[in-house]
Design a protein that fits this description.
The complex is a heterodimer of chains A (about 350) and B (about 550). By secondary structure, chain A is of the alpha/beta class. Chain A contains 18 helices and 11 strands. Helix content of chain A is about 40%, strand content about 10%. The longest helix of chain A is centred in the last third of the chain and has 19 residues, at about 250-265. With about 550 residues, chain B is an alpha+beta fold. The chains are: A alpha/beta (about 350), B alpha+beta (about 550).
Amino acid sequence: MRIDDSSIYVDRHKCIACGICVDRCIMDNLRLSIAPCRQVCPVGMNCQGYIRLIAMGKEELAIEQLQPFGPFVPLIAATCTAPCEKVCARKKKDGAVHILELKRYLAKKYSKELYNIQVVAVRSKKSVAVIGADVAGLASGFKAIQRGYCVTIYAKSSDKKDMDEVLKNIVTSLETAGAVFRYDVALEEPIRDLHLFDAIILSRLEDHSFVKKDLFIKNADFNLDSSTHLVTGNIFCCNTDSSQKKEPVFEIASAFEAVESVSRYLNGEPLDWGRGFYTQGGAVKAFNIDQRVGSEEQRTLQEDLADGFDSETAKKQALRCFGCGRAFEKNQTCWYCLPCELECPHGALEVKIPYLVR
Amino acid sequence: MNIRRMETDILIVGGGSAGCMAAIRAKELSSETDICIWEKGDFKYSGSIARGMDALNIVCIPNLTDPDLYLEAVQIGCKGVVDAKPSYVMAERSYALLKKLEKWGVHFILGKDGNYRTLQYHVKGRFQTAMDEPDLKLILAQKVLDAGVKIINRVMGIGLLKDGDRIAGAVGLNTRTGELIVTIAKSVILCAGGQARFNLPNSGYLYGTFDYPGNSGDGFIMGLDAGAKLTGMEYCSRVNLIKDVSIPLLAITVTRGGRVMDCFENVIMEGAVNRIDEMHKAVKEGRGPLRISLKHLPEDTIKEIEHILFSCERPVQERFFKNRHIDFRTHDIELWPTEVQLCGGHGMSGIRVDGNAWTGIPGLYAAGDVACVPKQHLSGAFVFGEVAAENAVEFVKSAGEVHIDENEILAIEAKRDARAANIDKNIDIKEFEYKVRRIIGDYVPSPKNGYKLLRWLEWSKVFKKELENEVKVEDGHDLARLYEAEHIIRCADCSAAAALTRKESRWGDAHFRSDYPDTDETNWQKHVLVYSGDQYENLDTSTAPVLNLNNEEIVHEN
């Protein structure tokens, strides 16, 4: 990939690889190269984004970068094994940036903001039922709420008892955002009125033989597509592979993907339109990750960071980030019309007039 | 690869000035009508007014000007070849449009007397009304979104679908991924802009054009293939603008007291843009380059001019002048003829429409630069966006269900797949476009003659063959560029065919044939129409009389 910025200049220290300029370009000129840490993240969290913002001293904006994961950030921060740090470009120089610990720092300091779910301005009238209140179920409910759907989550009464503190906080924040929880149904029995929902998301398919019966799905019709998470009709399933024990972050990733499919389905779009063969240019993976993943054991965070960061050490740590991902000019079709520059939230991008015209 | 299919009542191809206005008006009239907009770029800032505008070009303010006076002005501007009805309708509705925009928060500049600030850009009458609104497109886009219109970004139209005679929808191409989208619609409004990428600009930079370079004539070709008739394609519109960067500033500077001079310091215009022909003449006679001088103006006026130039329409010129160390207080601004464009807004090329924005195909309307309402500028795009929407809503009410022919879609898909498979070919798409546009510049614009125009048609055959077989397509972006190149070639065919038919010279530099150098008012005060056929490169041409306000032929006494 040739990175030739003949007419667009991007300041690596300010660019947080958010992709707004790429979206705004009316000549389809720009593309986004994604930092290794984001490429390996199961949920695609923009680590570079929040780290650069901490470095710039804009922690409140760093929280915005985490809003797509809202109340799940504390959960991820507590349980993730940080594949991002294994591929950090800084690793070979003097050790990876402490990405996970920075996440923990934000999750702790701004938990109130994160539990306050940001919802799209215009709410949809479409309704989505989620069956199962495990991590994947709650994550589907959260994403569906964020996209403005009316969400009802069905759970076993025992689910509530088994929840730990973190999950209980998530449930509270979902309830505040408008999700309806139903613990009173016996999931072994057919759920009444399930057919009234516009879409249904199951968490863990095999637990739900009752749903098959209720929704008149025959076994023969089962054709679970792992990329689109579609079971049949308007029924989707997240967390499809339960044979092995997974970290919560994978469950969350699978739930988000399922909701993406649901939302396409509800908009009447084909589930995989826009993810076609030619998409490789849309977001460019410009780094060879395999080379960066060494065989060394991951250093244990607990040893050197027992107490976590305070705002000063966090900033110092964040300043170590190289800022690998960024927007760049791919197609050289600039019309110097300036919306990209205008919309860049951090003044990282500058349009130079192409040399032939300058 | 997948095809995305969807249904809607009204499909608007193009989300710029005309497209936004059409969507807003249609929702005003009937909120339950389902409307979808395809936008080639990104909706928030798309089209020619990405960064706002400095004036509403044509407004008939009561007690100052009226539609009859405007009609007179535009008839002089077009040397008589203009249907009266559309221009009259636009002028008639222009003041209500201004009021509507003002209500939405668009800032029009008021003079000291409390009246709108008007500027003279026409031979007669002060129609141009000053505006200072960098966020014009944002205001429109927000209105459209609030109305509940569905927007699909990154889609360029590549063909219309028909059900018998009437329109049934359209096929588009995702400019990033190369996927197809089929939208079945009861009515389609084409607002896809003109053809800004015709020949090369003098900078040699493919996208350094005056108008939004995403306008590659997609709408013309879609209309043509569906059976609509194009008119004025021989009018190769070309203006004198800032040298190298092709950014407009005549209206802003000259109407505020700037002087246009030739190299011998003769003043051609001062205070009003009313002698464009003289500018072309001066350049032709070798008295160029022309310059705009602002030195003599008071500091306040220069500050006002700078404020507008550097905030609206193309704010990038601030850094252009800075790079070149040009200060208006001490330096003149050099002008140069721009590239040629085919465009209904600035020139007079486009799909022929009547006063209802109707193209002649049931259900198909056209507005903005893609339609021929000569020299309508932004006012025309807005007014005809509204007119088209009113008629489309009316049409949809009585229109039944449409059915599309699956074979048509399969053919388009097969063509796309064949082009996308050309990954191992040798010619770079940019080089291809560069050569196409260089050769267009060599043969199609004035000075024209029969020999040159036929030479282009020969080249056109070669290019079309290369396009299918030898141009390399690596990703969806390249594929979209390939379709654009095809549209560029076919628009040049239309222009050449129309120019071959018009055996006279007219409109100065826009259509000068060295083999027929005189203007023939007796025989040629009429339209040249281009449509699908087999006379030249799948095109036929014919002539049509100019229509008066009652849509009757104008009879010339001789």
